[in-house]
Amino acid sequence: MTAAPPASLAIFVDADACPVKDEIYKVAARHGLPVTVVAGGFIRVPQDPMITRVAAGPGMDAADDWIAERADARAIVVTADVPLASRCVKAGAAVIAPNGREFTPDSIGMTLAVRNLMTDLRSSGETTGGPPSFSPRDRSAFLSALDRVIRRALRASAQTS
Fold first, then answer.
1. Is residue 27 within 8 Å of residue 5, measured between CB atoms?
2. In what order do the strands lie in the sheet with 75-78?
3. Which of 73, 77, 116, 136 could bridge 88 with an S-S bond, Cβ 3.0-4.6 Å?
4. CB of 132 within 8 A of CB of 55?
5. Which CATH entry fits the domain spanning 10-124+133-160: 1.20.140, 3.40.50, 3.20.20, 3.40.1620?
């Protein structure tokens, strides 16, 4: 049995297009961590006292803003949104993309620059292609990354307690 985590350690999910919500629920339950699923509007989540649903509102970045305002060193954020990842990393949160890629203070600057370059190229009419389709390999990489990040966060919070 896993020791109870600190009450403030939590997972926030940028849920509108997240393909790994079920995996997050399972891993979080194994570690006894609460999950907050944030979307612009209503989104269905399992009925579980450890899972909270937040409808952040219809604004363009309402869900991102809601998550970013709560992201800190005791947060694990799951998002594919690079600008949101950047905001959360800067706030001290651990951030993972659904494909298992960790956004870190060392990697986020270049990741954001590449994202902005690609956005500029697309807006000027350049055909850049989209992201690769989500694969079983991505799902596996995500599960490994999430478990690793949770264990690291639990160790860090135990050391500061």
1. no
2. 51-55, 35-39, 10-14, 75-78, 94-96, 102-103
3. 77
4. no
5. 3.40.50
pLDDT digits (tens, 9 = 90+) for 24-80: 999 999 999 999 999 999 899 999 999 999 999 988 899 999 999 999 999 999 999
Q: Rounded to whole angstroms, what are the CA distances from 75 to 38, 59, 124?
A: 14, 23, 37
Provide the residue ranges of all domains of the chain, joining segments of one domain with +: 10-124+133-160
pTM of the model as a whole: 0.83
* N-term to C-term CA, the chain: 20
Q: Which of 5, 150, 52, 101 is nearest to 85 (CA)?
A: 101
